[in-house]
Automatic annotation (TrEMBL):
Residue ranges that the Swiss-Prot or TrEMBL entry lists as coiled coil: none
Chief location of this protein within or outside the cell: membrane
Family: Belongs to the 4-toluene sulfonate uptake permease (TSUP) (TC 2.A.102) family.
Topology within the bilayer: Multi-pass membrane protein
Taxonomy, superkingdom: Bacteria
Organism name: Saccharopolyspora griseoalba
Protein name in UniProt: Probable membrane transporter protein
């Protein structure tokens, strides 16, 4: 018989449950570092195994693990891929504010409505990327620098808000925005998205930590595994190039569409 660990900050998980979540965190970190979408793996695993806990605790604890992994991936990308810090940092700052606002509304907005919106958006994103095989193969800026910065700030605010609400696909939406609208190659977009994603996680935690919603023991244990996966994923992405990242992007978007579609069908 499996017994609960009864350790502070672990939500009465069994040892088998903890090991499963750590494995999910490792895989999520690797996928998220390459193209985003690691939440498709990690968050559902947490919500499935958290015994009797409210969803908000899974959302908040997920941010602790995610911020560690995205920070590690961002550092790895910064050393191995081109990074325009003059654009990435302002985008990250705006995304942080958007995420803070989204986190504050996480309990107030009906997730079923939001999931329908995101499902439609993901289908459109996947089809658009699939129909344009040359998209994101190289850096081809579409705007003058000032306009490009405004486009990035808008994307940071909107997608940051969504991440604060804890919606799926944040990393994938960031990558798509930077590739399709700004004109970055997939590797450059993934690198920039990691910096922005760190900020969105910080914004959410600014709300969740004082509210007492974080299970620190579980979050830190998963963070170690997420970091290991993130570093490996970032190295793989920079070695394999934009073509590999594009294929991973389409795979993750398809997975997100199927996951959200199933969730909506079951909940209907």
């Amino acid at each position: 018989m499996l017994t609960a660990l009864n350790w502070p900050g672990f939500a009465d998980l069994t040892l088998a449950g903890l090991l499963f979540l750590c494995a999910a965190a490792f895989l999520a970190g690797a996928v998220d570092a390459i193209v985003g979408g690691g939440g498709l793996i990690q968050l559902p695993a947490m919500m499935m195994l958290m015994p009797g806990g409210e969803v908000i605790y899974s959302l908040a604890t997920n941010k602790v693990s995610s911020i560690a992994g995205t920070a590690a991936a961002a550092r790895t990308y910064a050393r191995r891929a081109p990074m325009d810090w003059r654009s990435a940092l302002p985008m990250a700052a705006v995304a942080l504010l958007g995420s803070l606002g989204g986190a504050a509304l996480a309990d107030a907005l009906p997730s079923s409505v939001l999931n329908v919106v995101v499902l439609v958006a993901l289908v459109a994103v996947g089809l658009y990327t699939w129909r344009k095989p040359g998209l994101g193969s190289s850096d081809e800026p579409r705007f003058a620098r000032r306009v490009q910065l405004l486009v990035m700030l808008l994307g940071g605010a909107v997608i940051g808000f969504w991440d604060g609400i804890a919606g799926p696909g944040t990393g994938s939406f960031l990558v798509f925005w930077l590739v399709s609208l700004v004109g970055f190659a997939f590797v450059t977009a993934s690198a920039t998205a990691k910096v922005v994603n760190v900020a969105t996680n910080v914004g959410a935690l600014i709300f969740f930590v004082p509210a007492g919603k974080v299970l620190w023991g579980l979050g830190l244990a998963m963070a170690v595994c997420n970091v290991a996966g993130s570093v490996g994923g970032a190295v793989l992405a920079t070695r394999r190039g934009s073509g590999f990242v594009r294929r991973m992007f389409l795979t993750v978007v398809t997975g997100l569409v199927l996951s959200l579609g199933w969730k909506l069908a079951v909940g209907a």
